[in-house]
């Protein structure tokens, strides 16, 4: 018989590969999977609450438990999934909503993309409330969600390209998503059309029609 000490069997001593959804509740794991499905590198409490439609007290308890398990951690700007938390593979969710492309644009060649992204992170625009961002080798995606109807707007920046998409729930007004996306585009344009830039510089923009109109 192999003796197992309490230390050996504690959750903190388990190898990452051995931990699965049985180690946390179904509600906790579903929220963790939702965070992973969005690819969120950093996210805010309020943004996640709007995205999931979860009561703040319940969400606070879940995030607290995930933090205690070492699956999430507090970072400047909100929360982040730890390496331990990233070992939970996202599963397909029936509630995943397709994104609607609204704007695609080349970025001016002489802008400081890092400065533009820094100027957008954590900012609110009209009805758009900051959710968080994801970052990988392909680029940076900044995410907002509307205060009332939980329409999500994503702005993806690559080295020379900007795309803005919306995630709209069933029976939601896609027109509101288009308005919110254009409002965000206007603010982005003001960031890179500062006083040091010459006037009249433009980049090709593609505006997509509402597919449900």
Structural class: alpha+beta
Mean pLDDT: 79
**Overall morphology:** globular
Q: Tally of extended strands?
A: 9
The stretches of 5 or more residues where confidence is low (pLDDT under 50) are 1-22, 195-209
Supply the number of helical segments: 7
- What is the percent of helical residues? 25-40%
Report what the structure shows.
This protein has 213 residues and is of the alpha+beta class. The chain folds into 2 domains: 14-86, Arc Repressor Mutant, subunit A, CATH 1.10.10; 99-207, 2-Layer Sandwich (Double Stranded RNA Binding Domain), CATH 3.30.160. The protein contains 7 helices and 9 strands. It has helices spanning 6-9, 26-37, 45-52, 56-68, 83-86, 113-120, 174-192, and strands at 42-43, 72-75, 78-81, 99-106, 128-136, 139-146, 152-157, 161-167, 205-207. The strands form 2 sheets. It has a 7-stranded antiparallel beta sheet. Strands 2-3 form a two-stranded antiparallel ribbon. A hairpin with a 2-residue loop joins strand 2 (72-75) and strand 3 (78-81). Helix 2 (26-37) crosses helix 4.
In short:
By secondary structure, this protein is an alpha+beta fold.
Which characteristics define this entry?
seven-stranded antiparallel sheet, Arc Repressor Mutant, subunit A, two-stranded antiparallel ribbon, 2 domains, Double Stranded RNA Binding Domain, 213 residues, 9 strands, disordered N terminus, alpha+beta, 7 helices
């Amino acid at each position: 018989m192999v003796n197992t000490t309490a230390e050996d069997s504690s959750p903190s001593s388990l190898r990452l590969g051995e931990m699965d959804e049985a180690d946390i509740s179904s509600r906790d794991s579903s929220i963790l999977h939702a965070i992973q499905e969005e690819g969120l590198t950093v996210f805010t409490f309020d943004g996640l609450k709007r995205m999931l439609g979860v009561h703040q007290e319940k969400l606070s308890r879940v995030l607290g438990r995930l933090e205690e398990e070492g699956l999430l951690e507090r970072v400047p700007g909100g929360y982040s999934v730890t390496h331990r938390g990233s070992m939970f593979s996202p599963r397909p969710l029936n509630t995943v909503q397709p994104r609607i492309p609204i704007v695609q644009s080349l970025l001016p060649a002489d802008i400081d993309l890092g400065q533009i992204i820094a100027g957008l992170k954590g900012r609110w625009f009209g009805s758009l409330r900051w959710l968080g961002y994801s970052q990988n080798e392909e680029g940076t995606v900044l995410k907002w969600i509307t205060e009332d109807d939980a329409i999500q707007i994503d702005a993806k920046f690559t080295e020379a390209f900007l795309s803005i998409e919306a995630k709209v729930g069933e029976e939601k007004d896609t027109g509101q998503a288009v308005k919110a996306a254009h409002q965000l585009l206007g603010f982005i344009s003001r960031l890179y059309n500062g006083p040091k830039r010459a006037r009249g510089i433009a980049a090709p923009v593609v505006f997509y029609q509402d597919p449900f109109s």
